Amino acid sequence: MQILKGMTWDHSRGYDPMVSTAQTYNENNPDIKIIWEKRSLQAFADRPIELMAFDYDLMVIDHPHVGEASRKDLIYELNLAENFKQKIYVALDVLHNKIMIKGWVEESDFTPEKIFQTYDESNIRGYVLTDIEKDGMLTGLNQKMISTNISLTNKKLIVGGGLKNNLDLDQLRKIKSDNLEGVIAGKSFYVGNIDLKEAQKILDGNA
After folding, report:
1. Which residues sit opposite 99 in a β-bridge?
2. pLDDT digit string (tens) for 110-148?
3. ∠56-57-61 over CA atoms, to 5°?
4. Residue 34: which domain range?
């Protein structure tokens, strides 16, 4: 019997589905058994991903680690964009025009423009562009960053980082582009700054 080792985070959302899926897979493929282990998010942050990649056959990792893993050739690149055409978005976590990795603490060599040059001719639908300096701060969207980057790509953009209220959305509409597909309302929604019905009315002209 072939045994594969998997690692995921120690939460029911991360662990229980993997165990259940592994059991079903083993029932259909009795020669293969997948054993899942779990670790805290802090433990993930404390141990370099390249070390874990050599210890495990399968890993469930959050998106800040995906860019790092890909950049270091630690994971197989599945041709998901080919199988799910126009349904996949590439997350771009940006600080001072550089893509941040390793949980947003390490600056990569990539700019959004470089990523656009790589993926614009692929079958992805677009990008989720987040200004992490503003994320969760309720200080307003980085309109200049959004305007600049939307002019550099032919793909759709969902933007985020700093959304304060519906006035921000009104400003966003001034960016006249069919590729501006949506905006992320996180903290602004939870604290009651955003009225979703009103927000939808504002964005209907552009998103």
Report:
1. 94
2. 899 999 998 898 888 999 999 999 999 999 999 999 999
3. 75
4. 2-61
State the Cα–Cα distance between residues 177 and 182, nearest whole angstrom: 11
6 DSSP assignment: E
User: What is the spatial distance between Cα 175 and Cα 118, in angstroms, rounded to a whole number?
Assistant: 24
User: Nearest to residue 164, comparing CAs of 203, 135, 127?
Assistant: 135
For residue 199, give both structure tokens: 């927000």
113 and 181 part of one domain: yes
Q: How far apart (Å, rounded) are the C-alpha atoms in residues 106 and 4?
A: 31
Are 76 and 66 spatial neighbours (Cβ–Cβ below 8 Å)? Answer: no
Taking the model in full, what pTM does it have? 0.67
Quote the Cα angle for 78-159-203, to 5°. Answer: 125
Same domain, 34 and 88: no
Residues 6+ positions from 204 with CB-CB distance below 8 Å? none
| 30 is a domain residue | yes
Rg of the chain (C-alpha set): 20
175 and 104 part of one domain: yes
Using alpha carbons, list the distances in angstroms from residue 90 to 27, 63, 105, 119.
34, 10, 19, 9
| Alpha-carbon gap, residue 193 to 201, rounded angstroms | 15
Q: Please give the Cα distance from 168 to 65 (Å, whole number).
A: 30
Nearest to 36 by CA among 54, 59, 70, 53: 59
